[in-house]
Amino acid sequence: MNKAEFIELFAEQNKISVKVSEAIVNSILETMVTALAQHIRIEIRGFGSFKIKEYKSYEGRNPKTGGNIKVKEKSVPFFKMSKICKNDLIKIKENV
């Protein structure tokens, strides 16, 4: 599902216009991006949590040439699903 499909589904489920739905979804996503950029952990109970993981620089291998390369330190977003959400997914999979 892409963002546009999500916005349409959200609008349909909440009986609101697509325009209002788009504003809500964009606001939520912008708020989350801003928080993560400031290294603020986000926890949505029953769904999961988002945080930024820091990775130090290390020696890697170029798969094309086989030579060693220096990989710079980096920050990447990380999502951890809640136990409730995991259990719900398992139940849904079993019923399919």
Summed up:
With 96 residues, the protein is of the alpha+beta class.
Low-confidence stretches: none
Structure classification: alpha+beta
**pLDDT averaged residue by residue:** 94
Please write the string of helix (H) and strand (E) elements. Answer: HHEEEEEH
| Highest-level CATH class of the largest domain | Few Secondary Structures
CATH topology of the largest domain: HU Protein, Chain A
Write out the CATH superfamily name of the largest domain: IHF-like DNA-binding proteins
In percent, how much strand structure appears in the residues? 25-35%
Q: What is the number of independent domains?
A: 2
Helical run tally: 3
Largest sheet: 3 strands, antiparallel
Q: What is the total tally of β strands?
A: 5
Helix content: 40-55%
Which CATH-level-2 architecture of the largest domain? Irregular
Shape: extended
Largest sheet, order of strands side by side?
A: 1-2-5
Give the C-alpha Rg. 19 Å
Q: N-to-C terminal Cα separation, in Å? A: 18 Å
Protein model, in words:
The chain has 96 residues and is of the alpha+beta class. It has 2 domains: 1-40; 43-96, HU Protein, Chain A (Irregular), CATH 4.10.520. 47% of the residues lie in helices and 28% in strands. It contains 3 helices and 5 strands. The protein has helices at residues 3-14, 18-37, 83-95, and strands at residues 42-44, 48-55, 58-61, 68-71, 74-81. The strands form 2 sheets. A 3-stranded antiparallel sheet has the order 1-2-5. The chain has a two-stranded antiparallel sheet with strand order 3-4. β3 and β4 form a beta hairpin. The longest helix is centred in the first third of the chain and has 20 residues, at 18-37. The radius of gyration is 19 Å and the shape is extended. 0% of the residues are buried. The mean pLDDT is 94.
